[in-house]
Amino acid sequence: MSSKYACTQTVVGEQISDSHQAQTSCGFAVPYLAIKQDVGDPSKQIPYLEDRHTLGHWAGKRILAGDMDDYRSKWNFQSLDGLPGLRIARQDAGERLLWYGDLKSQFRKWHGTELVLVALLSAIMTVLSMYILGLTTLPNPVEWMSVK
User: Fold this and answer.
1) Domain coverage including residue 135
2) Are 77 and 89 in contact (CB under 8 A)?
3) What are phi and psi of 67, to 5 degrees?
4) Which long-range contacts (CB under 8 A, 24 or more apart) does 112-119 make?
């Protein structure tokens, strides 16, 4: 990254994101909020959303040039924070096991909660298995909780 945009780095999750890249890629489909005259009452003005037309023009030029698939596979393969991007972009970029990438993403998203639950369930199952096999005994809850 150039020093010109050094102050625009932010931490997103565990990665550094370039906010200049986000700034220059967002907003193509965001509509303008415009004001127009009310048809029923010309003395009143009402707000409405006006299409920006930017995304349609840009995509049309890419499609006519025949490089939309290349653009999509390069820039939409993953998000700015490193998560898997559009499935079609990942496929265009050569990823064959899309389900595996989706699974890795879900694991990354849920791993903290799931690891705690798996550890807790494993501990309970281990103690119960040892009790059933006669390798340990469980304390009497009344004796265990009573204060002596």
Assistant:
1) 97-148
2) yes
3) -120, 20
4) none
